Fold:
Amino acid sequence: MDKMDKDIEKIGILTGGGDCPGLNAVIRAITRSAIIKYDIDVVGFMNGYKGLYNGTIKKLDLKEISGILPRGGTILYTSNKTNLFKYRMQENGETVYRDVSDKGFENMDRLGVDALVIIGGDGTLTSARDYYRKGANIIGVPKTIDNDLAYTDVSFGFDTAVSVATEAIDRLHTTAESHHRIMCLEVMGRYAGWIALEAGMAGGADAILIPEIPYDIEKVARKIIERKNAGKRFSVIVVAEGAKPVEGDMVVKEMIEDSPDPIRLGGIGQQVAKRLEELVGLESRATILGHLQRGGTPTSYDRNLATRYGKVAVDLAVQGKFGEMVSLKGKEMSHVSLEEVIGQINKVDPKGEMVETAKCIGISFGD
Ligand code: F6P
Structure:
């Protein structure tokens, strides 16, 4: 057992925002590393920032976290609606927004939590940064299937989402071929096209439409017609939920008012399928993969990345390096200030090597 550089006796963990495969692997790694390496107690706040507000916790020990490594979801549950710096509440029959972040400090003091590891995406980590600014001992861990967080090469959950989407493309291929159809698969990713790009390439898609490269539907249709003329009377198109035509906007499915990012995208796959049917003359179908990309067991890559993140988060807490987010740079674990990370989006480079490779092997981006 190492001697602690700093006097941390209890670490809290909180998972916020949309869930993703690998969250339990991080919780497990933090708990095991804190207990085994440093003899530090660990508790988890339940339901994201809601638990910090209510002071609802679960004690995490080796027994509690046993068997959770391959499990999807988060044993601490999560919420993507709670922002304690702008908390939605009812007062005199009216909806008002209040800064209730002090409740979090009160609960951490009362429970003896010296440091808090916050696992989340952009919205969750923005509040983490705000807590750090107010004086809390915070470490951030990047989580999102979208892979859109800056200053880390990969966030855990992404690899699993890409695997699920790739399998979906493989399955769509066989039915597309049998029926001579165009199959459009809409995948998640918000304003970044990473899932569409990586799954589309791995699944051998004929076209990949991403937010970073606005598409011309006629150019996509031309690609499918070329295939048809060459005897391939079916095509598979992967459409990122944030994809948009050259002259047009992303398709907003709904607004979730009390969410840090209220916009929910969805529906572009159906629009693309309909237009392609009109332009090409082959029957088309759209599939929205949705939350299947977020559920279920993490890949081995995500389990190991999550485990490495969890271990480093505890090391940083013990060293008193607060206000930092754990990150992956190349093959090495690293860390970066939350101040730098927040507000930056990691997007696909339209001129980057991945897109160039895809284009070289004949994949259309509709540009
Ligand atoms: O950020 C993760 C993500 O799954 C996005 O890809 C998607 O746009 C969004 O969350 C869906 O959010 P919700 O679970 O609220 O529908």
Observations:
- The longest helix spans residues 158-179.
- The pocket of 6-O-phosphono-beta-D-fructofuranose is lined by residues 18, 80, 121, 144-146, 188-190, 241, 264-265, 294 (CB under 6 Å).
